[in-house]
Amino acid sequence: MKRLFLVLMLLATPLMAVQPDEILDDPVLEERARELSKGLRCLVCRNESIDESDATLARDLRLLVRERLVAGDSDAETIDYIVDRYGEFVLLKPDTSGANWLLWAAGPLMLLLAGGMGLVYLRGRATSNAAAHVPLSDEEQARLDDILR
């Protein structure tokens, strides 16, 4: 019984973030607000959506989303308003337009660059080993034999 209660409490924690006084009377608007809130980052908790966060700033953002929806804004207008106010960091999944494409492409580009540099290094190393293996002359071999005795 205790385990069942614990499991239910763990499953219910993300739902507890939205306070009862925040919930809109219109179920359609509330569902839109919840969907929008899932895509917005809590600026205090970092990688947690404002829908899941208990932070005061997350609550303010949830209320702001609901205010904009009640005022008649579309989903895109609501998101644009919040991004204009708090910056693009507030989006959990930023778009790839503008200068963001460079951030999205930086990882794969660095991987390709590192792979190319590794390949050049390994080929240069193989070439230098082959060139460095020159047999000793008779005079050098005789000197080496004297030193080793």
TrEMBL record:
InterPro entries: C-type_cytochrome_biogenesis, CcmH/CycL/Ccl2/NrfF_N, CcmH/CycL/NrfF/Ccl2_sf. Keywords: Cytochrome c-type biogenesis, Heme, Iron, Membrane, Metal-binding, Signal, Transmembrane, Transmembrane helix. Residues 6-148 form the CcmH/CycL/Ccl2/NrfF N-terminal domain. PANTHER family: CYTOCHROME C-TYPE BIOGENESIS PROTEIN CCMH. Possible subunit of a heme lyase. The keyword Heme applies. GO terms for biological process: cytochrome complex assembly. One of its GO terms (molecular function) is metal ion binding. It comes from the Bacteria. Pfam families: CcmH (PF03918). This is Cytochrome c-type biogenesis protein. Belongs to the CcmH/CycL/Ccl2/NrfF family. Residues 1-17 form the signal peptide. The keyword Signal applies. GO terms for cellular component: plasma membrane. It comes from Sulfitobacter noctilucicola. The chain crosses the membrane at residues 101-122.
